[in-house]
Write a structure and sequence with these properties.
CATH architecture of the largest domain: 3-Layer(aba) Sandwich
Strand content: 5-15%
Strand order of the largest sheet: 8-7-6-9-10-11-12
Number of domains: 2
CATH class of the largest domain: Alpha Beta
Structural class: alpha/beta
Helix content: 25-40%
Number of helices: 12
Bound molecules: 1,4-dihydronicotinamide adenine dinucleotide
Distance between the termini: 36 Å
Order of helices and strands: EHEEHEHEHHEHEHEHEHEHEHEHE
Oligomer: single chain
CATH superfamily of the largest domain: NAD(P)-binding Rossmann-like Domain
CATH topology of the largest domain: Rossmann fold
Largest sheet: 7 strands, parallel
Shape: globular
Length: about 325
């Protein structure tokens, strides 16, 4: 198949080219984002491969259809950026990579927690400048703390497995509780109870109508004072204005985010010589107790290999007329 990649980076090219030795597709890589105007780059291709911030709305899908392209392979787990109803209307099959190394994202969530808590990012800079002072570097033990997990799917479970090692109490919120986790001592609570009891809350649910702004002004009023909030899932799970207010009020104690509501304009680009035209992220980055990474939770060698092989297998299956379990449609999306 001839596959056009959008939003591609050097690491996509490296891993897809390597894994494609086993598949034999023809790959074209475009750095530009996918939208209704850029679809035409995929002219003469059989499929499009897209990523998290590509805008795949009705207009984009209609243009794909006009180019005769019937397959959209997402090289990610989330599919909130695709209008699935429109895909169905135009007969375009959408495939994703539901679970590639959930450990990669879980381990990144843990990295955010440990960095924010023990301030290793600040210590690194201090020591390089000959400042060996420990003032203002005090953290807290995770041992015997309560860690709240919102969404106990593949990544949430991998995260729980990791934080269990800290001898922490684990509580969870998910409309579909996991019986195995319950047997292992994970206590499922209401969202408000989880927020009020947890010293650290980590978001691992998808972005749906039900989870949009699941962390908002009202839920932040319930959050334990001084608690840490971690989001490695999707930016719009959090109402950014409400979180900024809560940080200013010193209610929320720490914020670690790998995703941001308006990340399409910023993430995956080098803007170091530019004026950042987003006052909210500028405000967030100014807090000493906020850590922002630019959607790198998936970025491990193991995850990149798995993403490439599942994506190419999805397209090989499509080519052979097989609709495999990685197909997503408006009908098979599970929402709360
Ligand atoms: P999953 O589908 O295995 O698990 C999601 C869980 O969330 C399920 O147990 C589901 O029941 C639960 N859930 C659904 N609605 C909920 C609600 N209203 N409240 C609480 N929980 C709810 O998905 P997986 O693989 O664990 O991924 C989770 C999310 O992580 C993805 O949707 C994606 O947005 C994000 N992600 C981020 C990456 C990064 O690089 N930062 C990479 C990969 C995924």
């Amino acid at each position: 198949m001839k596959i056009a990649f959008f939003s591609s980076k050097s690491y996509d090219q490296e891993y897809f080219n390597k894994v494609n030795d086993n598949f034999g597709h023809t790959l074209s890589f475009f750095e530009t984002r996918l939208n209704s105007r850029t679809v035409s780059l995929a002219k003469d291709h059989d499929a499009i491969c897209a990523f998290v911030n590509d805008k795949i709305n009705d207009h984009t899908l209609r243009e794909m259809k006009n180019e005769g392209i019937n397959a959209l392979a997402l090289r990610c787990a989330g599919f909130n950026n695709v209008d699935l109803n429109a895909a169905e209307k135009y007969g375009i099959k959408v495939m994703r990579v539901p679970a590639y190394s959930p450990q990669a994202v879980a381990e990144h969530a843990l990295a955010l927690i440990l960095t924010l808590n023990r301030k290793t990012h600040k210590a690194y800079n201090r020591v390089r400048e000959g400042n060996f002072s420990l003032e203002r570097l005090t953290g807290f033990n995770l041992s015997n703390k309560t860690i709240g997990v919102i969404g106990t799917g593949a990544i949430g479970r991998a995260f729980i497995h990791l934080v269990k090692g800290f001898n922490a109490k684990i509580v969870a919120y998910d409309p579909y509780p996991n019986e195995m986790l319950k047997k292992q001592g994970v206590e499922y609570l209401s969202l408000n109870d989880l927020l009020s009891r947890s010293d650290v809350t980590s978001l691992h649910c998808p972005l749906t109508h039900d989870t949009f702004h699941i962390i908002n002004k009202q839920s932040l009023q319930n959050i334990k004072e001084g608690a840490m909030l971690i989001n490695t899932s999707r930016g719009k799970l959090i109402d950014t204005d409400a979180v900024i207010d809560s940080l200013k009020e010193k209610r929320l104690g720490y914020l670690g985010i790998d995703v941001y509501a308006e990340e399409e304009k910023l993430f995956f680009k080098d803007l170091s010589e530019m004026i950042i035209d987003d006052d909210k992220i500028a405000r967030l980055m100014q807090f000493p107790n906020v850590l922002v990474t630019a959607h790198q939770g998936f970025l491990t060698r193991e995850a990149l290999e798995q993403i490439a092989s599942t994506t190419l297998q999805n397209l090989t299956d499509f080519e052979n007329g097989v609709i495999n379990e990685n197909h997503v449609s408006a009908r098979n999306v599970k929402t709360a």
